[in-house]
Structures are given as C-alpha cells and as structure tokens.
Specification:
Helices cover about 60% and strands about 10% of the residues. By secondary structure, it is an alpha/beta fold.
C-alpha cells in the first residue's frame, strides 16, 4: 500500500495535469469558435459562387454548348492520381489524426490493389502527422504544408489548389481526391473522401435564373475559365477550414474527457489519502491511550 507521502505526491501531480488539460480545453474551444465563424462567413460566398457556376453552365447548354469543353469538368481514364490528405501538426486530439491517416492509407492501398505503382500516386500531406505517416508508408509529400495546417489561409490554399489545377490540366494527374475529417459537430468528426478533380457540376435545379434571361459578356467560355479556378481554390480552402474545425473540436472533447478522468482520479486519491490519514491518527490515539493506561 502506498504511503501518505506518495499519495500526496500523486494528488499534486494530478492537480498539475488538470490545470494543463483545462487550459488546453479552453484554448481549443476558443479556436473552434473562431474556425466556425470563418466557415460561417465563407458559406454564403461559396453558395453564391456555385449558383453563378450553375447559371453559366445552364446558359451554355441553352445555346447548344455542353460542358465537355471545360477541362476541369471532363473525366478521363485514370492512370495517375493525386491524394490531398489533411491532418494536424500536433497530438492530444483523440483519434483525429489516426482516423485521417487510416482513411488516407485505405485510399492509397485501394489504388495499389488496382494496379497503380507508387510512382502513379502522389500524396500531398497537409499537417505534420499526416506527412510523417505517409513518408513512413513510402509516399513523401512534394512540399511541406505544415504551416498551412497550423494557420489556415486562403493564400496558402490557393497555392495548393493551383498546383493541383496545373497537374490536372497538364496531365500529371487524371484524378485528384481529398481525404479529411469533416466537422459534423463537436462530438462527431467523420473521415471523408471526395473527388476534387474532375469537378462535379451542381444540379440545374440550384440555378437562380432562367438560362434565357442571362446576357453573358464577353462569353460564357471566358467567364468559365475565370470562375472554375476560383471555385476550385475555394473548395481547398473550405476543406482546410473544415479539417481545422474538426481538429479543434476533437481536441476540445479529448481535453474535456481527460479533465473528467483526472477529476475522478483526484477524488479517488483524495479519499485514499483521507482514509490513510484517519487510520494514522486513530493509530496514534490508540498508542497514546495505551501508554496512559500503562
């Protein structure tokens, strides 16, 4: 049985740990709130941009022009693929990183099983934890995206988006996929897999206007060439924000769980200490009484 001194030391250690987990929970919660605000501010713009895209496509089809001429929306035989996998730079966020890494490896292994060689698969790892896991698996990232994971910005997301765009239009990639944890709620961050390129065109039902009401200048094609890359950049940025919010949510829950467990352990240790102290006092009283009777 542990001595009172040892138990007291454990209590002090648990209290110190509780201060750390409580502080980390508060920081993660504040960052989550900021990330949610960023997503909320971006969603109306993203929705409107997609509606504009639908209207332009509808106008092109109304004039007898399909969307096949726009290379970003044209599917082709897949011989080379790029996978953009998102995770975080640090730990202490529950199963956030392990879930993202597992899903990314599943996607990679699926392509390998389909006959793709390692040279046919390029993995862009966003976040140090993902980069370390993918490098260990033999898929080192072409660039370091550690800073982008730590501090999401539209500029950094755009740079990555244009790298993927150029790779797709130049034929270095025939398909680009995204793997990330989606922020569904504070308690749920499921791993997601989405095809990024070629783009899937939104349904016509989302269109705001009758195609015949649109007067497009200088031309639908020229506007599409400008609009499509913007939509692509925004998709990378929204995915980055989504993954970032999911990370902070996972860390908030993990630190809350750690704090709850720490409080339970502290209660047990305090009870054990009080019992031991009471037992010691009782023993000393009995010794005094025994000495007095003698």
């Amino acid at each position: 049985m542990a001595s009172l001194k040892e138990i007291k030391g454990r209590i002090a250690s648990v209290r110190t740990t509780l201060k750390i987990t409580s502080a980390m929970k508060m920081v993660a919660s504040a960052k989550l709130h900021k990330a949610q605000q960023a997503i909320g501010n971006m969603l109306p713009y993203e929705k409107q941009l997609h509606r504009m895209l639908v209207d332009l496509i509808s106008a092109a089809e109304a004039k007898g022009k399909g969307t096949s001429e726009y290379s970003l929306t044209t599917a082709r035989p897949v011989r080379k693929v790029a996978i953009v996998a998102f995770a975080s730079n640090s730990s202490l966020c529950g199963a956030f990183n392990s879930n993202a890494v597992r899903t990314a490896l599943e996607v990679v292994n699926e392509y390998v099983a389909a006959g793709f060689s390692s040279s046919d698969i390029t993995v862009y790892s966003v976040g140090r934890k993902m980069a370390e896991a993918m490098k260990k698996a033999g898929f080192g990232s072409p660039e370091d995206f550690t800073s982008m994971s730590a501090n999401p910005s539209y500029e950094a997301a755009s740079a990555l988006a244009y790298e993927l765009l150029n790779g797709f239009t130049e034929g270095r990639f025939d398909r680009v996929e995204l793997v990330f944890n989606h922020f569904h709620s504070t308690s749920s961050q499921p791993s997601m897999r989405q095809t990024f390129l070629p783009m899937s065109i939104p349904q016509k039902e989302e269109s705001m206007l009758d195609p015949g009401d649109l007067i497009v200048e200088p031309s639908v094609q020229e506007l599409m060439e400008i609009l499509l890359p913007k939509v692509v950049c925004l998709k990378i940025y929204s995915t980055l924000l989504d993954s970032n919010a999911a990370e902070h949510a996972a860390r908030t829950v993990a630190m809350q769980t750690a704090t709850d467990n720490g409080n339970d352990l502290l209660s047990e240790l305090t009870l054990e200490y009080n019992k031991g102290r009471q037992q010691k006092i009782t023993s000393e009283i009995l010794d005094i009484v025994g000495a007095t009777l003698q």
